[in-house]
Amino acid sequence: MSALLEVEGLRSGYGPVEVLHGVDLTVNAGEIVVLLGSNGAGKSTLNNTLCGLCRRREGTVRFDGQDLTGRHYRDVVRAGLIQVPEGRRVFPNLSVRENLELGSFARARARRAANLEKVLDIFPRLRERLMQLAGTMSGGEQQMLAIGRGLMAEPRLLILDEPSLGLSPLMVEELFGLILRLHGDGLSILLVEQNVAQSLEIGQRAYVLENGMVRHSGACPDLLASDDVRRAYLGV
């Protein structure tokens, strides 16, 4: 497999506080790579640094051979590295349609109408609620909307930050089925999750982040069988 995202020695943080301490990570084309870690491990900081929302201090970020180190977040989006942030962050006072269309503001604007139809085929519930205000939808529906908005930008790599957070068990099952479907369509995915068991079951490789450093990495079946990972995250 060819490397799509290559991260080397990444350090970043906020103000005087360094959160990431030299992170190395690779996502190959066509992979689901899982990023695990407890609250405060640095997962969201890593995502935001990759996407140009948090200033890196050291290290490099390359995407599809292009150096994105220190680039503006608009350049990152235009390259096709798209994040669906933790907490969904839909625009509550805009309609479902307006939220989706905003996803193509910086990338794939010319194919907005065609991509909207593709997203609505994936999420029939959104088609039923096109004119509904996003803030009046359930948590699961808002998560569909957030992912749909990301897909409107025709991502080369989609970062999903805690997509199952706050969802019912039934919605979680539906979500993981959707991730597999997107992967089956050829989309590369960086899945950032605390739902360890299900994430490792659908991913190819995984990294475990602790205190801003990669403590474990490897094939998902190997990490699922690791005593250290099982004790720390599965309670067994």
TrEMBL record:
Keywords: Amino-acid transport, ATP-binding, Cell membrane, Membrane, Nucleotide-binding, Transport. The keyword Transport applies. InterPro entries: AAA+_ATPase, ABC_transporter-like_ATP-bd, ABC_transporter-like_CS, BCAA_Transport_ATP-bd_LivF, P-loop_NTPase. Coiled coil: none annotated. GO terms for molecular function: ATP binding. The keyword ATP-binding applies. Residues 5-236 form the ABC transporter domain. It holds the Pfam family ABC_tran. Belongs to the ABC transporter superfamily. This is ABC transporter ATP-binding protein. It comes from Castellaniella daejeonensis. The lineage of its organism: Bacteria, Pseudomonadati, Pseudomonadota, Betaproteobacteria, Burkholderiales.
